[in-house]
Specification:
There is one protein chain. With about 240 residues, the protein is mostly helical. The chain contains nine helices and no strands. Helix 1 crosses helix 7, helix 4 packs across helix 6 and helix 7 packs antiparallel against helix 9.
Length: about 240
Amino acid sequence: RGAPPSPLPLSRPSGLATAVPVAVFCQLFHIGVPTLLQPLARKGSFGYVFAAALSVTLLLYTALGLSTASFFGQRTRPSCNINWRRHRSRPISLAVALFPAVDTFTVFPLNVLFLSNNVMSAVLGKRWYQEDVSRRARAASRVLCSLPPLLCAALFPSLSGAIAFTGLIGILLPFVITPLLHETALRHLQAHWDSAHVAEAEEESPFRTPFSSVARVRAFGAVGVALLVYTVVAQF
């Protein structure tokens, strides 16, 4: 009700530092890749499967973002579900307003499980892979891993701020840490085998992609570092 919302400009470069972490957060799924990969009968096709999945989610999120921004204009809130609080249908208003909280609540145990498994794998090593870990230790690890997010939520109650911070971690992991892992693994292999055998093994790997070359991985990492620095400086 009231005056129509002012239209948003087609582009606003100053908002890039806010949009990038949120966009990365929306596509953030790499912590679950091993679990998602496991049911695939043809492991070599995982690149096409995940590319298709990410393309679909990118299309849906883009359509949702554009339609919301075009409808609410300058009134669009950082958490746009709040814009629906004045909807004439109370059930619809309540459902949209509560959806982020309900969605986060349902996925939170899954994220805690992934984090706990990764922590135990890194700390316990062979004991974890040999399943020589007691049920009590697993439960304690999952409880401890659930505490940091709850503490951060209490200290930083802003949803948009929390998503922006999570997006920074999302930039760091795939765009910076992953290229560093590639570089470290390559140097380790070259220290034990000659370069020709390493190159031959990479060529025969079913997981090789056009982005697997050393030069492209390093370029990807450099872009990731630049993106991370820009986002941090622009936000803080």
